[in-house]
Amino acid sequence: MNINHLYIISCFSLLLSCNTAEHVMQRPDMPDTYTNEELKRDSANWAMVSWGAFFQDESLKALIQRGLANNQDVLKTLYRIQISQANLQQARLGRLPELNVQAGAGVNRFGEYTMDGVGNRDSNLSPTVPEDKMIPDPYRDFLIGIDFSWEVDIWGKLKMRKKQALLRFLESEEMLRFTQTNLIANIASNYFLIAGLEEEILILNKNISFQEAAFELGKSLKEAGQDSQLSLDQFEGLLLNSKGLLLQKNRELQQAKFNLAQLTGSYETNFTYASLSETESLPEVIAAGVPADLIRLRPDIRAAELNLQAQELEIGIVRTAFFPTLNLSGLVGYNAFDFSRLFLNPASAIYQVGGGLTAPIFNRKRIEAMYETAKAEQKIALYDFEQTVLQGYLEVMGLVNDYQYLADQISVKTEEVVVQQRSTENASTMFKIGYADYLDVINSQSRSLEAELDFVKLRVEQYQSYVELYRALGGGWI
Length: 478
Prior knowledge:
A 4-stranded antiparallel β-sheet has the order 1-2-3-4, with no helix packed on it. It has 11 helices and 4 strands. Helices cover about 60% and strands about 10% of the residues. The chain has 2 domains: about 25-95 and about 155-185 and about 270-325 and about 365-470, Up-down Bundle (Outer membrane efflux proteins (OEP)); about 95-150 and about 325-360, Single Sheet (Outer membrane efflux proteins (OEP)). It has helices at about 5-15, 50-55, 60-70, 70-95, 115-125, 155-225, 230-265, 290-295, 300-320, 365-430, 440-470, and strands at about 100-110, 140-150, 325-335, 350-360.
């Protein structure tokens, strides 16, 4: 095939590729501000606060440090970054010629009834061939040299691959921050859950002591003929129910400790905790910033956008397959059938330079399928990006809403606990002097216990809402 044929093929390929225009997608719009009035206030942007400033509890911070150092998910993500970094280095070197050192030796024994065998013997009989150039039999071949191959980046494919590898590397870094943010949030959430469970266990032990005292009083009254077996059974039933609930809370506490041990990558479960009353006081007003900050600060949103940009480049890379490629190759070195003459004799020097133009003809359908696949993957990446942005926006709105309402619920529940505790004290006093029956005591104790446990649950839920807000704001990785 001569150069004219190659020129015709390349022109034909260019014409075939004219209908493969690159598809550019529009980024989703973001609201300029939140609808929640509290989020519109001018104050420090919480999305820029690091976890060390977001959480003040020293015991919690020590656990987070341990988790960041030992958690297997974080460590695996670090190695994925190393893979992306190696791919980036490979893509950077892809635009340079590939150089290889060649060194080889071989021996061949040609048959007498072969073209090589007859030709070599005939050459040796020629009077013009000097003795030092006689072809040996068997034929020995020694070669040492450097070869190169280079794909000329006519259409920018290698440049796009380099940029794509950089985007993948940056995406892997964002995924590390995303993994670290989730880990920190999970550790903090379990930490506050453990603090809440221990508080509930204290409340149950205190109430069990009161119920045991009421049960013993009921037995004394029954023996004195002042109370019935029915009331005694009711007291005992309430006591057994509280003891069963205490066992459940202890089981949940141990499981939460196991979960925390897994998050911190440790077999140890005897961690140092602060009680709910000792933990940090939560701020009253949340200043989350404007929605545009989510795109700039949330690792998952930044990773989704980097993935979208990489998929857009993939379309350009696949499109270049429709065009002809130009490859250059060459070799320079020494070649001889006598090793002693391989380097000392300039006549052993060799070189070879060539080039080739390759254009797709019969595999066009396969390239078209790859191109359609790349466009579909780009659309998926766009919708992933839109979904992540929408999810981030609504997460912050929902969590701030929960955080504010939980504060109001806790305020009401605090008053309820005070009232129920006072009711229990009055019912017990009146029962002792005969002005109240056992149902009043049982109902007041049950409601008081329920109110105290609900108060602790609301407090834990508020702390966990605070933790989830940290996660939703992106973790403060700036």
